[in-house]
């Protein structure tokens, strides 16, 4: 009489891979929940989420709210002198107040109300904005040694894709074009500037100054033929 054969335990690579994929999925899910919290929850709860991220990941950009307009700002770790100059310049022209800044960050960000730069309904930049661009471009042209500074100007809201595909310039597009032309006219090299759109209120324009290694490759987007 033969004894009952016991089943042998074998490793299942597919199961291990599935567990890793599930862990990645849960991590991504947590990340999107964080984004949703920042964009959809009430202000107090969103601030708590941001503070938690700042404490857990101090190398990330720290944001703060100043003034009655909810202007956010963060500082640069590399080239503190540039960061100080940017802060003083924005405060001089737009009456910002100092905010807590991260010990380390690679982006300097300021969000301004659209009306600060465009007091009317069109694309005419305010005299204050025009006066601001020359010293702003001067700072960007003189980065810390071994680095270069690039700026992104981002309009809140989403782009009107049908209009863009049809070659129609919307008021938001006209404003971003006016800002780009004004900065270039003030002396900023075009390869240090990009414009676009960002999630959030259409009544906000974000300035994002990024410090990069001087030899970091630039990215160029070009239309391809049919």
Secondary structure elements and pairings:
Elements: H1 13-40, H2 43-56, E1 65-66, E2 71-72, H3 80-94, E3 107-113, H4 114-117, H5 127-141, E4 147-156, H6 161-165, H7 171-185, E5 193-198, E6 204-213
Parallel strand pairs: 4-5
Antiparallel strand pairs: 1-2, 3-6, 4-6
Helix pairs in contact: 1-2, 3-5
Write up this protein:
- Helix 3 packs antiparallel against helix 5.
- The model is unreliable at 38-43, 53-77, 98-104 and 219-226 (pLDDT under 50).
- The chain starts with 12 loop residues before the first helix and ends in a 13-residue tail after the last strand.
- It has 2 domains: 14-57, no CATH class; 59-213, 60s Ribosomal Protein L30, Chain: A (2-Layer Sandwich).
- The protein contains 7 helices and 6 strands, in the order ααββαβααβααββ.
- A hairpin with a 4-residue loop joins strand 1 and strand 2 (71-72).
- It has helices at 13-40, 43-56, 80-94, 114-117, 127-141, 161-165, 171-185; strands at 65-66, 71-72, 107-113, 147-156, 193-198, 204-213.
- Residues 26-57 form the Motility protein B-like N-terminal domain.
- This is Motility protein B-like N-terminal domain-containing protein.
- The chain crosses the membrane at residues 20-38.
